[in-house]
Every structure is written in C-alpha cells, then in structure tokens.
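User: I'm putting together notes for a lab meeting next week and I want to include a structural view of one of the chains we've been expressing. I don't have a solved structure, so I'd like a prediction I can at least talk through. The sequence is below, exactly as it appears in our construct file.
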Amino acid sequence: MKKGLSLAAALLIAAFLVGCAGAAAHAVSTDTPASELQSTYSHSAETEPDYATVLPDDRVNEITITLTPENWQAVLDDMTEKYGEFGSGQGMGGGRGGGLQPADRLADVQTQMQNPPENAGEERPEMGGPAPQGRQGYDRVPPEGARPNAQPDEQMAPPTKGGGAQERPQGAGGRGMGSGAMMDGNDADNPIWVDAAVTFNGESWEHVGFRLKGNSSLRSTWGSGSYKLPFRLDFDQFEDDFPATFDQRFYGFKKLTFSSNFSDSSYLRETVAADIFRAAGVPSAQTGFYAVYVDYGEGPLYFGLYTAVEAVDDTLIQTQFERNDGNIYKPSGSAATFKAGTFNEQQYGKENNEDEADYSDVQALLDTLNSDLRLTDAAEWRSNLEKVFDVDNFLNWLAANSIMSNWDTYGSMAHNYYLYHNPISGQLVWIPWDNNQSISSRGGMGGGGGRDAGEGQPGGQTASIGHENTGENWPLISYLLADETYHAEYLQAVKDVLEKGFDLKELTAEINDLHAMIAPYVEAEEEDYTTLSNKDAFESSADDLIELLETRYQAATDYLSENQP
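Assistant: Thanks for the context. Below is the predicted structure for the 565-residue chain, given as structure tokens.
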C-alpha cells in the first residue's frame, strides 16, 4: 500500500511538473524577453523597413563600425593602390566642402569621373552623438532629447590627432585630389569589401560588409588627408561565408550608403533635395543623419557627421513601387546621355537581374527617343516614347532639378541617376541620386552641352530653367523641350514643383531646424575627420542655402511669367 501511494504521489508530482513546464514554455512563447524580440525585429528579413528608427528626421543617430586592424589596413592598402598615397593629392583646391571649389575646376574633376560606382515601426530610444561641450569654441549642447549611449566615463570621444587617430603618411603633400583609378560600378574596380561589426541602438550586427564608395568625393577626400570617407554597409554581404547572417537586415534595410557631404558646407543638400523631389512626386531616397564612430583597434573614433541614404536597389524600390522585380540601372558614361549611337550594355550598370542579359528596355528608350518620327510624326513619337518611358515623372524631375540648379547630373554630367523598369506600367522611371551638388550657385544644367558630352562647360553660367542652350548631346532634355506638347507639360511641371515642393516658408523652417540639430555634431569634427575647410562656412551655410532657394524660386517664377501663352 505504501509503495502504491508513493507511486501515485510520484505520478501526481510528475504531472504537476509537466504542467508547470508547459506553462513556462507558454510563457516564454508569449512573453519573450524584450532583448530577444528586439533582436528578431532588428535583424530579420521579415521586418518592414523601419524609417523612423533608421532614417529619422528629428534626431541624429549614432553608429559604431568595428573593423579588425588587419581589415582596416587592407582598406588603406587598397585605397593607396587605387588612389595613391593618403593626403598626397594635388588639385581641387582644398578638397573640403567648407570652401566650395570653383565650378570649372570641379567640372573638370567630374568629367574624369564619367563612370561612378555605383513606414515606420515602433519607436526606439533616441540616440546621442559626440559631446562637444568643454572644447574651445564648441559650447553648444546636443539637441534636446539626444542622449549618449555610454556612461560619461565610457563616452566615445571625437577623434584627435593623437591617441588612436591614424597619423597622416609622412611626406604628405597639399590637400586635394590624388591620382589613381576611376570607379565605374564594377566590384573589380571599386574599393574592396571587408568584414565589419556594427553597433547601433544597443544591438550588434556581425559580419557586415563595409566598403568605401564614390568617385570625386572619395578621391578628393582621400587625397586631402581626411578620414571622413564615404562608405557603404551591406548587412548580408558575407552570408555565403557566415550562414548565420543569411538575409540579415538592419531594421528592414539590407544596404545603406553613408555620404560624407563632400563639397556641401551645410551638410543639408542631400536631405533637402530628396525632400523636394518626393514632394514633387519623384521617387527619391530618404535620408537620416548619423554620428559615425569607427574602431579599428584603437577604440571608437569619431569620424564625423554623415548622411545615411537608402539604397535604390533595396528599400526605395520596395517601398515606393508596387513591385520590385524590374530591372534597375545606374547608367554612366556616354551611354547615359541616350544620344543616338551610344548604346553600351556595360555603361548601363545593371544593379539586379544580372543573370538575365536583357537590356531591351534601355535599348527601346534610346531607339524610340532618337526615332525619325520625332520630326515627321510627333504625336506617334510621343505615343511610342510614353510606352517605354515615364515622361511625366522625368519632366517633374527636370523641373525640380532645374529649379534647384543641380549641375552634377544629366544635362551636364552623364551620371547620378537610376532607371527602374516598372513592371506594372512597362516604363522606365527616372530616380535621382547623389544630390550633394544641388541648390548651387555654380550654374549648371542648360549651360551648354556639358563636358561629358564633349562640348561646353557646365557651371560656367547661371543655370537656365528653360534649358535654351542644351544641345542634342542631352536628347532627353533638348528633344522633349523642343516638342510643343512636352514643353507645355514642362511649364506645368515647373508650376507644380513650386506649389508642392518649393514652399519657401516650410523649406526655411526645415533648414533652420536641421541646421540647429546637426550643429553640435558638425562642430565636434576634427581636422582630419571632416570635409569642411573651416567651421565658419558651416555657421553661415543655412542662411546661404535659404538665400539660394529664394533666388531659384524667383528665377522659376520669372521663367513661368515669360513663357505663359
């Protein structure tokens, strides 16, 4: 009897324990620790792009990139091989964005670079940035609400010439452009990818792809002896080597580009231009500001304030189009002009669907645009063109870009745009890229055929809203605006852009607010980690930017007044 009672008791106890275990398992599945939920959310490919966290418009994020000393040295060695010795470049004046270089000199440099390389989730803690207080001349405090990630005794300090900052190579010459290769978008010619770790928002991402990027901005910054080099992150770049990172994401983002704001003393042009484009109905990348720290074995060093830009071939296509499986191109070189006879598959820079050697969509655009029907049957020409190209979108882009006076793109330079073949409409859609030269007083589009096209010189005269002097080397502009129907649509596009995207009161408020927000982070930049030639240029940059926008608004208004039927 006692044995029976013991067995029964044992069974009861076992049943109780099993029940408890089941309850515990249920509790884990429905009440997983916040850290595990956050990790799943932040790293999973199932997460929708969280713009509020990754690309906020009301705070400066902080990110730390860690590379082994060997990988950092590999990056430097690769750059030396491609661009020459660090800090030894000659040319382009100061090579820093604080003093804008003369347009003709920049145009010469850009001409050499015809083939460039390439809604929100839950609220996250606000991030802080560098702590500029206490340094002579830097008495501002970080924006309200910003807070450092680390405790005061652990706070990452901006880099200095001593300590962990890498010294400039001996014998470095004047600041400016170095010699070396030109990047054309092919991985074999671009800077190398290396393995890195990323820390952000209290979490870590391992085996992230890191590589430097850019053409004139990268070349000039390297040659000038500044470590504030533009770069890219790809969060599953090394998934073949590290299967645990398969489809690894950064709050829904696979890729991010970090612009150094080269040649932009305001650090705002990339952001303001993209906002104007989207307000005008033109697909354009969203942006956010980041205080970037890099640790290559000497502790985290402040590399400066960057503008993070979403990748066109990642979240932009995913969120701004109904389907994301169409061909994505980043044209550069003569083929990017779409002038008759320039078709060249390699210069169309296919960003996806590489295994499908099908360039029929861009071939159709070039052939249709240059068809003799343009002169013999304009109505048929327009009908055919609109079947393969989103003309309305292009005219909206052209209007916005012309009002902003951005010379570093189509119309002066054969690069800095993408084309997306929208599977829904069957049309190629124009997407602007790399806007750090926008809102410029250097002249620009419409100022001649452009150096890339072999005639004229961009930036040599005041930018024309009407592109009266744009020649046949830029047929997407000259042919469309020579057509009476499309010219009338362009006039309407200019009017719409002024109404939708060029509200001077709103733009003034945006610029002043952003300037105040980023000021402490810009002022904390050190000499060898900045694209500014001097801090005074930044201090006056907001007013200068607003004045330029007012001038361009008036130029567009005058153009409309002079061209009304």
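A couple of points you could mention at the meeting. The beta strands are 60-66, 194-200, 203-212, 231-234, 255-259, 287-295, 301-310, 328-329, 417-421, 428-432. The longest strand covers residues 203-212.

User: Perfect, that's what I needed.
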